[in-house]
Design goal:
Distance between the termini: 23 Å
Helix content: 25-40%
Order of helices and strands: EEEHEEEEEEEHHEHEHEHEHEHEHEHE
Oligomer: single chain
Radius of gyration: 21 Å
Number of strands: 18
């Protein structure tokens, strides 16, 4: 008789009411090249909301256990897993090389156990907690690749971050500050701005009350075409939509527009005159790799960085945790401990 576990299962696309906390879901069994992990922590990302709703052009094999990010310890192994041993503490890179994303194309981390390909496993250092590790892949991995791997931000740069209170946003605040940048964080409430100050932001702007692009020009000067005076060195924009053109307007000559998403729309109004007149560099960044995740855990191990975790909830409260993320009521990550 199959052993059973709790799992957060999506059977049909829709809203959060379509998620079901199942108490009698079969525990996966190890197959060749794979390990079963006891999930100790899993964290939500906006991608989980997109998976629940359904995305045009992406056919999710339902039912599926959602959750991209997860960390745990190995409870079962099969042949072809290399160095790994039962009991090893591991972070999972959610990109399965053959099938795609965990929590979308195959079962993810919002469950007590998960079957994972051995080549997705990364050892967790001793001083890194499961919750910290599970916070990293999608949000911090993306930010690390965009800022450090691509070498886009240096000490003294003025870096303006849109959507700074979310997972990727708080990661960018923390990492940009770690690099020695002057960080300008944009968010939507006094509570969020106060928290972002606590994470290291030098300046905070409430975009619901202030035109952040004009604020940047007033603060740092109007960008000049014949000199390098005025403007910010970089804008981090993963929202797109109607924030794109204002981003271009406040970047200094030779500055950067860093892009890793388009949550508010992928086809914004464009004005190429800014791109050539101010020699703006537009740098895209896609996904993350094992080296990004190892580097992030090393920073935590060395006490140089700590991920921003807003809430830690049990699996029984996972749907509410995802609602908090959807309604933008959190600053940083929501972690679930199954």
């Amino acid at each position: 008789m199959a052993k059973l576990m709790k799992a957060l299962v999506l059977r049909t696309h829709g809203d959060l009411a379509n998620l079901e906390l199942v108490t009698g879901y079969p525990i996966p069994q190890a197959v060749a090249g794979h390990a079963v992990i006891r999930v100790r922590a899993s964290s939500f990302n906006y991608h989980d909301l997109f998976t629940v709703k359904g995305m045009p052009g992406i056919r999710v094999p339902l039912p599926v256990i959602i959750g991209l990010d997860m960390a745990g310890d190995i409870t079962e192994l099969c042949d072809g897993v290399g160095k790994w041993r039962i009991g090893d503490r591991v972070l999972v890179n959610p990109v399965n090389k053959k099938k795609g994303l965990m929590g979308e194309m195959l079962d993810g981390g919002m469950a007590e156990y998960c079957l994972v390909s051995a080549d997705q496993l990364i050892a967790i250092p001793d001083k890194v907690t499961f919750a910290e590790a599970a916070s990293l892949p999608v949000a911090y991995g993306t930010a690390h690749r965009m800022l450090i791997t691509h070498n886009t931000v240096k000490k003294g740069d003025k870096v303006l971050i849109l959507g700074a209170s979310g997972g990727v946003g708080t990661a960018c605040v923390i990492i940009a500050k770690l690099l020695g940048a002057e960080v300008i964080a944009c968010a939507s409430s006094d509570k969020k701005l106060h928290r972002l100050k606590g994470l290291g932001a030098d300046e905070v702007v409430d975009y619901t009350k202030v035109d952040w692009s004009k604020w940047a020009v007033e603060k740092y000067g109007k960008p000049q075409r014949r000199s390098y005076d005025g403007g910010v060195d970089a804008v981090i924009n993963f929202t797109g939509g109607d924030t794109w053109l204002p981003s271009l307007r406040c970047i200094k000559r030779g500055g950067k527009l860093l892009v890793c998403g388009a949550t508010a729309g992928h086809d914004p109004k464009e004005d190429l005159r800014y791109v050539w007149s101010f020699e703006i560099n537009i740098q895209g960044s896609n996904s993350f790799y094992d080296e990004d995740l190892r580097a992030l855990m090393d920073l935590i191990q060395e006490s140089k960085m700590k991920p921003a975790i807003d809430k830690v909830v049990p699996l029984d409260q996972a749907i509410e945790g995802l609602r908090l993320l959807r309604d933008r009521e959190v600053i940083g990550k929501v972690v679930v401990e199954p």
